[in-house]
Specification:
single chain, Rossmann fold, Methyltransferase, Methionine Synthase (B12-binding Domains), Chain A, domain 1, 2 domains, CheY-like_superfamily, Response regulatory domain-containing protein
Amino acid sequence: MAEDGGTRVLLLVEDNRADAELVKEYLAQSDDDDSGIRVIHVSRRDDAAAVLQRERVDVILLDLTLPDARGLRTLESIRDTAGDVPIVVLTGAEEDGLAASCLDAGAQDYLLKFEIRPVALRRAVGYAIYRKTGEDRRSLAQVFAQYREMSSQNSTTMVTASMAGTGALRMRYPDGFDEIVGIYQELVVTYVDCLFVKQAKPRVQMEEIVTLIGDRSGGPRDLLDVHVAALDRVTAAHEGERARAIAVEGRLMALEMMGMLVEFYRVGQRRHMAWSTA
């Protein structure tokens, strides 16, 4: 069940201890050695929200009747906090129209407690994760397609050529281009990490890369070429969700560096890396 053999994190929101223990037992019954699931169990909506704030959760198994929330409001509240984490509703209430209402409200699946069997439960959880993974991959593919559409690889009249009377940086300086991509790859990961922990952005390193590109008469499309090549390496080095986060949030870094590159040409700033002047 776990993609690439990794352990998935399931948040079980259930106030009935006996039901919670049964769910854990059912999830543990698997013939697949790679289907490891780590279960985090809470009994209140507010506790679930706290877990979602501090933990990376792959799927939520949610009881609709909790001490501090009941019915569809439980689902809506958890959904608002969980973002795009898939939710499987687990309930003992057999009400007409409730299943459809839950799906309309954003649940991936709906299970009745008295009908649950180990295989059915694991299948519902696995399908919810699988569908979410597929959505992430499609989203990531769309991001890359947008970048490549703008990069020099798909342009016959390149901005770089019109700006400097040359060709694409990746063609003129293949070794230097590859070196810049390696530096950029590390920097975009650092940049996204800084966003998540609310630390200062690595502006000095960003300016250093802009200088490396500018000193070689590179333009906006060259910067996009570097960005796309770096993201290709990121997706090979990181798991799906991590790679998607870097690709999506890294767009902000690319936009900021575009502005820095324009400023580089406007005022002629030069900021060289220490190793380049040693």
